[in-house]
Amino acid sequence: MSKELKYAVFGSGSWATAIVKMLCENQEKVGWYMRSVYTKEHLLKEQHNPTYLSSVEFHLDQLHISNDINEMVTYADVLIFVIPSAFINSELKKLNLELKDKIVVSAVKGILPETGLLLGEHFHENFNVPFENIGVIAGPCHAEEVALERLSYLTISCADAVKAQAIADALSSNYIKTKISDDVIGTEYAVMLKNIYAIAAGMAHGLGYGDNFQSVLMSNAIREMKRFIKKMHKMKRNINNSAYLGDLLVTGYSVFSRNRMFGNMIGKGYTVKSAQMEMSMVAEGYYATKSAFLLNEKNKSKTKLPIINAVYAILYEGKDAKKVFKKLTDKLD
After folding, report:
1. What does the alpha-carbon distance between residue 284 and residue 192 come to, in Å, rounded to a whole number?
2. Coil, strand or helix: which one is 314?
3. What's the rounded Cα separation, in Å, for the pair 119 and 105?
4. Which is catalytic among the residues 21, 109, 163, 194?
5. Torsion over CA: 222, 228, 233, 236 (sign)
6. Which residue, 49, 60, 69, 96, is CA-closest to 8?
7. Residue 330: helix, strand or coil by DSSP?
8. Half-sphere exposure of 1 (CA within 13 A, CB side)
9. What is the pLDDT of residue 137?
10. What is the pLDDT of residues 248-281, one digit of tens each?
11. Is 179 a catalytic residue?
12. 227 C-beta neighbours (distance < 10 Å), count
């Protein structure tokens, strides 16, 4: 890039906090927008996020923190959005600035429920951001392991390889390895879909299914993901790459996976509402399930999605998880 880019992260959850930590490894100053005044004031006083990844201590001279989204957009060249998909539209309504000259990066793991669009598509259609200025951050990478500085991997997708590499370099460190991709839409869908399959894995565990079934479920999930993404955006991609299969596996199996935890609670008999109330973090897969189901319903030729349909039936139609999974087992191979 011809100039040194300024970065800002929008959101204050665990993944947003982890991305700020990564950027602080390489940047003199990192912008950080957070809606909560309490979170901002606590961080400025105690040097850590009071709610998420509290073990991560920041050097305050590296941070430019604000509760004003327009101030942060003005400050930065690269805007990394990490606000949950269910809440991002209300935050974007506060924007009154042009974004066409900004690089917008989605680390949001879902579709905007109000529009049915991926975040990149939403910025392109509603904020006139050129497609070559839109990027996506994909895993496999859990925020908790970033906090522990355990070796992790990221894939940065952007149609402009130079911009993708610049963002990748900004996030790289001795414990973060990065690679780039031009499959912007595919990786963004994969980031969304893997959370649905993680809920399914959690449900299976909560219902008492063992490791043998889990392996069959994940094997079918990656093939289902491939069919879905190919239907939405056909291009040459290797679904076995870490941005797709790797991210799916870690989200489906890891003890750090909030979506797996959410599904496990549903499998054990929690209602959706009670599971959501007990969890301190948002399970993005809950919202992604409805988005993926409705997107497929709108297609003239529906894609075969038995796992997504099963999760949707349990979460949104109130179907009995045990009965739904019994039927699902006959559809898997």
Report:
1. 8
2. helix
3. 9
4. 194
5. positive
6. 69
7. coil
8. 18
9. 96
10. 999 999 888 999 999 999 999 999 999 988 887 7
11. no
12. 14
